[in-house]
Amino acid sequence: MKAIMYERYGPPDVLELKEVAKPTPRDNEVLIRTHATTVTSGDCRVRSLHMPVGFGLIARLVLGVSRPRQSILGSELAGKVESVGKDVNKFKIGDEVFAFTGARLGCHAEYKCMPEDGAVVLKPANLNFDEAAAISSGGTTALDFFRRAKLQSGEKVVVNGASGGVGTAAVQLAKHFGADVTGVCSTANMQLVRSLGANHVIDYTKQDFTENGETYDIIVDTAGTVPFSRSKASLKDRGRLLLVLSGLPDILQMPWVSMTSSKKVIAGPAAGRAEDLRFLAELAEAGEFKPVIDRRYPLEQIAEAHRYVDTGRKKGNVIITLEHDD
Ligand SMILES: NC(=O)c1ccc[n+]([C@@H]2O[C@H](COP(=O)([O-])OP(=O)(O)OC[C@H]3O[C@@H](n4cnc5c(N)ncnc54)[C@H](OP(=O)(O)O)[C@@H]3O)[C@@H](O)[C@H]2O)c1
Question: Which of 11, 101, 5 has the alpha carbon at shortest distance from 310?
Answer without folding.
Answer: 11
